[in-house]
Amino acid sequence: MTETEGDVAFGACGAFVDQLVQEGLEHACLSPGSRSTPIALALWRHPHVRVHVHLDERAAAFFGLGLAKSSARPVAVACTSGTAAAELLPAVVEASMSRTPLILLTADRPPELRGVGANQTIDQVKLFGRYAKWFVDAPVPGEAPSRRRWRSLATRAFDRARGWPPGPVHVNLPFREPLVPSAGAEVQARTPPSSTGGTFGRPDELEDLVREVRNARPGVILVGSLRRPAPALTDLALRLRWPIIAEPTSGIRVPGTLAAGQFLLSSEAFVGDHEPSLVLQVGAAPTSRAGLELAARAGRLIVVDPDRLVADPMRRASWTIEADAEILASQARDRLHERPSAGWLEGWLEADAIARASVDALIDGWDDPYEGRIARDVAAWMPDGSTLVVGSSMPVRDLDTYMAPRDGLRVLANRGASGIDGFVSTALGVAASGAPTAALCGDLTLLHDVGSLLWSSRRGHDCVFVVPNNDGGAIFSFLPQGELPELEELFTTPHGLDLAAVCAAAGARHARVERADDLVPAVEGATADGGVHVVELPIDREANVRRHADVHEAVATALAGAG
Q: Please, what is the end-to-end C-alpha distance for the chain in angstroms?
């Protein structure tokens, strides 16, 4: 039987996909389209690829982003040509800035149909610009029939996506019609092997770092978001007798790190009496303004940057080390002897305990929901081995401020570009990786990605969304825009939507919680039921702002009373 263009294209895509599987691909996200038929069929018919279908390319890309963040392995995202490919851009930006490996497979018209007004055709060459770390405009399959060539292309794409620092790569795939292969065409699939990763770092930098911290007067370790946790940092801090302030997305907000670090950093009186001569900042730049200011006012700032994030927005770093944080910390720890107590660490720990106790006593006395307590209580309740996906804007800041250190919980967020778009898709992608998953986000974040809720709620995913609903963008009340007369119309943008009705339309279950003490039982029950749930908590925006101020005032009073 004579091979058609459809058979040739399917054969090339089959070899390409099978090689991706050999390299370690497990998941692919697809959206419907005609021009992408060869690559869609190759992914769908491969026995070792789990395919997730989405109506919306943007949602598909963010779902793949969640899978890739959770698994730390490249995920394929395939779509048809034209504006469908452009819909991938927001997720590509986040993947680039959070160092998340994605393999973007965009179908395209063949060269003779480009630039001549052909239907559903745009210029897709380097469509994602600098946000794709590697791009290739693949040949039309009929012009490159060699299966070896397509396997080589797949290996290069996977290696570039996974290689340090990881990120998104873009393979543009032009196809000629006919696009459908002959009946019964199958992918020639092989069993995938196991894979391993590598490490990196320079020995001379290790020795220089050891010398720096050994000779420094008291310091502080600040740990921002990390793709891979570095638990050896807690041991290093103990050897140095330095406090360690770790964001939840670092993976090491565990016992041994400060429980009220953001409150201490927000206290001018405390920081004025406890200015470090050296700040060792690890991972992404601090989320909080107080953390950024501590790094800026330190006598010396050293940044450990595992993913080449250039995490120095204040331009204060005297030295940046590009190295694996866990390897660097463990090797530095082994070269240091534990210092005798000089009161520095004890002062931080004593103040931390006082601040934590004053915060908990105050917010536990409030019966109606408060955003800080919501973040604290959800993080404390989550089962060991589970994942909490947290939204940008206020939730990630509330979690950073109020979450008590604990073991057994992984916290993920889209903090590369810090946008709210695609959050529902990202959380469902994390849930699809297999770990018990809950998500904490604001009402606008949920509504911004409501299309994914509508499509995915009936598709077998298990995820509980905890949503403080303040009817708009409450974060602007904490910013200078809060003083503008146009606050409501231009920034807060109240929506007035009934989230219960939205959930009913989507097929998601909904519960409204009016009392703070009822939150954990509601989340626990929703988790036990399975499926997609939204647990909504009504928030009075003005009261929430006042309570944020009340908590900080209580901490300041407690610290002042303790001397």
A: 89
- Selection from 41, 125, 130, 135 nearest residue 86 by Cα: 125
Average pLDDT over residues 375-383: 97
Per-residue pLDDT tens digits for 89-113: 999 999 999 999 999 999 999 988 7
SS3 478: helix
Q: Rounded to whole angstroms, how far apart are CA atoms 201 and 421?
A: 34
In the chain, where are the structural domains located?
Answer: 5-174, 203-348, 369-539
Determine contact, residues 221/237, Cβ cutoff 8 Å: yes
Instruction: Encode burial over 484-506: b for 16+ CB neighbours within 10 A, e otherwise.
Output: eeebeeebbeeeeeebeebbeeb
Q: Residue 534's pLDDT is what?
A: 97
131/410 Cα distance (integer angstroms): 27
Mean pLDDT of 50-62: 96
What backbone phi and psi angles, to 5 degrees, belong to 173? -115, 100
β pairing state of 168-174 and 463-469: unpaired
Question: What is the pairing mode between strands 300-304 and 278-282?
Answer: parallel
Q: Distance between CA atoms of 188 and 183, rounded to whole angstroms?
A: 15
Q: What percent of the chain has pLDDT over 90?
A: 73
Instruction: Tell the CATH topology of 203-348.
Output: Rossmann fold (3.40.50)
Q: Do domains 5-174 and 369-539 have the same CATH topology?
A: yes
Rounded Cα distance between 100 and 64, Å, is: 10
pLDDT at 194 over 60: no
Please give the Cα distance from 458 to 159 (Å, whole number).
Answer: 35
pTM beyond 0.90, yes or no: yes
CATH number assigned to the domain covering 5-174: 3.40.50.970
In this predicted structure, what is the pLDDT of residue 197? 40
Which of 68, 2, 73, 6 lies closest to 40 in space, CA to CA? 6
Question: In terms of Cα–Cα distance, which of 414, 464, 460 is closest to 438?
Answer: 464
Rounded distance between C-alpha atoms, residue 76 and residue 45, angstroms = 15
Q: What is the largest CA-CA distance in the chain?
A: 89
DSSP letter (8 states) at residue 2: P
Question: Smallest Cα–Cα separation from 236: which of 349, 344, 350, 331?
Answer: 331
Residues 275-292 pLDDT 10s: 999 999 999 999 999 999
Which residues lie across from 172 on neighbouring strands?
Answer: 106, 137
State the CB neighbour count (10 A cutoff) for residue 470.
25
Sign of CA dihedral 474, 477, 481, 487: positive
Task: Please give the Cα distance from 175 to 178 (Å, whole number).
Answer: 9
Helices 57-71 & 423-432 angle (0-180, nearest 10): 50
Q: Which CATH superfamily is domain 369-539 in?
A: Thiamin diphosphate (ThDP)-binding fold, Pyr/PP domains (3.40.50.970)
pLDDT of residue 142: 80
Does the structure show a pLDDT above 60 at 195? no
Q: Token match 């709210």: residue?
A: 420
